[in-house]
Amino acid sequence: MEYTETGVGRELGERARQFMDEVVLPVEREHSGDGAVSEAVIEELREEARARGVYCPQIDEEHGGMGYDFRDVLPLFEQAGRSLLGGPAMRVAAPDEGNMHTIELIGTDTQKERWLEPLVEGEITSAFSMTEPKPGAGSDPKMMQTTAQKDGDEWVIDGHKWWTTMGSEADVFIVMAQTDMDAHPYSGTSLFLVPANANGVEIVRDIPHLGPSIVHSSHAEITYDRVRIPEDNLLGTENEGFTHAQERLGPARLTHCMRYSGMAQRSLDVAKAYLSEREAFGGPIAEKQAPRFAIAEAETDLYAAGTMIRDAATKIARGESARNEVSACKVFTANVTQDAIDTALQLCGGSGMSKDLPIADFYASVRCFRIVDGADEVHKRTLARAAFEDVDTAEIETLSQFENQRAQNRIVHRTSPVFHDAIRPTR
Predict the structure, then answer these.
(1) Distance of alpha carbon 252 from its chain centroid, rounded?
(2) How confident is the model over 213-241, as pLDDT tens digits?
(3) Cβ 177 vs Cβ 189: under 8 Å
(4) Which residues, in sequence order, are CB contacts of 410 under 8 Å at separation 6+?
């Protein structure tokens, strides 16, 4: 595995660390327990991020970003995860980050000018509208029910989506829909850019959900009732929606992994500070073996996750799909970050549950990570399928095999009156 940071990545990560320590964390502490911060606060943080050279580093300069290589931005993503305000401040938070990447990757020049550049600037927001209520597509995307049919120079979209993150606030949706009803869904769906104010788009509700309080987060249920959009709003190639979705989700899953790794590490940092100050049973809790070992095990897991993520990112940067590597990163990181944050909360006791510390918000946020961008079970299924693709039976050739003649005799005995004789132990 390759896990050393590039010089560029280290320098960018250090700038991000300073920005987080000097700007973002003080703002987080100022607003702890007060509910979601205002858009004005987020915009102030973004202005400072621009000034410090840590704003939207993953998008090309021609579209308003900083033009860094995907591999080089990982340390920044990890730093951003140390606070729930870090991602929005540096414009690397989901879902906008993944949507910007998608439009940059497969969008037309016109689409980039209309949608990507305002997204980079933070002038508009976006959402990825794929998941559907039953019996539609959930963990099994082959069950896609939403359709898009061509009518002259327009597409007409009919469907029902939910769990569309930030859907209530979005100015534009990337909608996945079936476009070839006779084809397998993997080769018969497409992506579309749908303005939120298009006729027929209705936000049914914000789904009440588990989540943090310091940043606003919605998950919308949306219906598309004969929504007409220009044919030019097709994003990417017709009937290649699943291919494009995987192109989006691979890097997005890794950036999620980095942000949650930063969140988990910050949780442990808070816990270590608390344990060092809190005394019980005759001395500082930090001197007790059980909490020390718990911290050590959690940091070991995070080190392993960081190594995996960087290795997968290197392969993606080389043009490889790295699908199995990304699945391994996603399922492993989701679980070890959840465990690390849970450990930190437990070690801080009642203070861990309070909103005076960030751990409670982190705890509410991390649980969704084992579901979003592919549930654990989906990624394990992918990895298990790959594990059994090329089984080498030579590995068990040394085992004794049941003799054919003896097997045939057993069959004869079972059909004869003396069947019981056939099952007597062999001497």
Answers:
(1) 6
(2) 889 889 999 999 999 999 999 999 999 99
(3) yes
(4) 422
